[in-house]
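Practice problem: Histidinol dehydrogenase
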Amino acid sequence: MRIQHLDQTTRQNLLEDLLKRSPNQYGEYEQGVLEILDAVRKEKDKALFDYTEKFDHAKIDAETLRVTEEEIEEAYRLVDPDLVRIIRKALENIRAYHEKQRQYSWFDSRPDGTILGQKVTPLKRVGVYVPGGKAVYPSSVLMNIVPAKVAGVEEIVMVTPPGPNGKVAPNTLVAAREAGADVIYKVGGAQAVGALAYGTESIPKVDKIVGPGNIYVALAKKAVYGHVSIDAIAGPSEILVIADDSANPRYVAADLLSQAEHDELASAILVTTSETLAKEVSDQVETFVQELSRGEIIQKSLDRYGYILVAETMEEAIDTANEIASEHLEIQTRNPYEVMTKIRNAGAIFIGEYSSEPLGDYFAGPNHVLPTNGTAKFFSPLSVDDFIKKSSIISYSKDALYKVHEDIEAFAAAEQLTAHANSVKVRFEEE
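Answer key — structure tokens:
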């Protein structure tokens, strides 16, 4: 991995480099995505079937679009029972964590007859996109469905691309059943996003679409925002490790590569105050790349977006981490909790040398759907909050309104909205 001394120029060049990975930079794909969405809006099921045959090389129709109970039962026979057991253990942790995020309606009544409050209502129908193709991610199934179930969503509609045989990966089906998906459709890509956003003869329109996908899925979600809500525009995976000379270079290198193996656009960055550690981590990375099965992808990722930055002070390292606002942030220092208190921007923070990033991906409980490409400065991980909406409650008695009606009328008059003022005034015109 390239080693650079951290200064203002290095930091600025790095930030500009990382921004190239944003889905917002891939405008050349947008027209194709818009054409797919337009076809789905107009032709509905027919467009889904045609695009599935074109892109996934699978023939589906109205009879085979929906995953059947028999297919789910077959999936359980094909999946290793040990994996089912592990999925259930992870599910328990994920559910327990998200249960703590639940919000409840509240009401505040006062002696003057005023009642104010907030009504919390789960979304009625949510669409969950699950990637297929080259890799299968049952962990993403759990992370997207569980918070929706905890929130109380009435219907969870899952879409995922089929293989050429017209079937969905067994691991995906088992995870979906365990997590609580209500219905699963064999369709992926931008066409699946369009179906969820607009509705077709077979797939109902949803209120919100969540879940990761490739650039076409990301751009499709961006395009349909407004017709439906979305979670976020997900970019490539990324990890940043803050470490000092107390860190284990082998652990740091292994953790950096855990994200670099996702794809060639993934980013892996070490910011350290130790030049010795920097060199040791670089050496360990070279060794691992030769050993790991996805070494070619890892190497391309590191060549493009892998950095080891040597900082003069820990404060400088922390400032850089806050500026990058990484999806995953590990702290491997002598005083990791002290460093953690100074972190403002990160999707998920892993504290200490035994809190490796895959712990969050699979098992600990916090959601692994996280803000990327610097959006951790203003976005949060997927949570129960993403599957609820809030309504304000206002109730005034006549006496309560009488005390303030002149103030309201004066405020409305100041904005030259006489109908607003009149709406209050008519209630007291006989007095």
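Discussion: The chain has three domains: 3-22+235-364, 25-230, 398-428. Students who identified this feature from the tokens alone can consider the problem solved.
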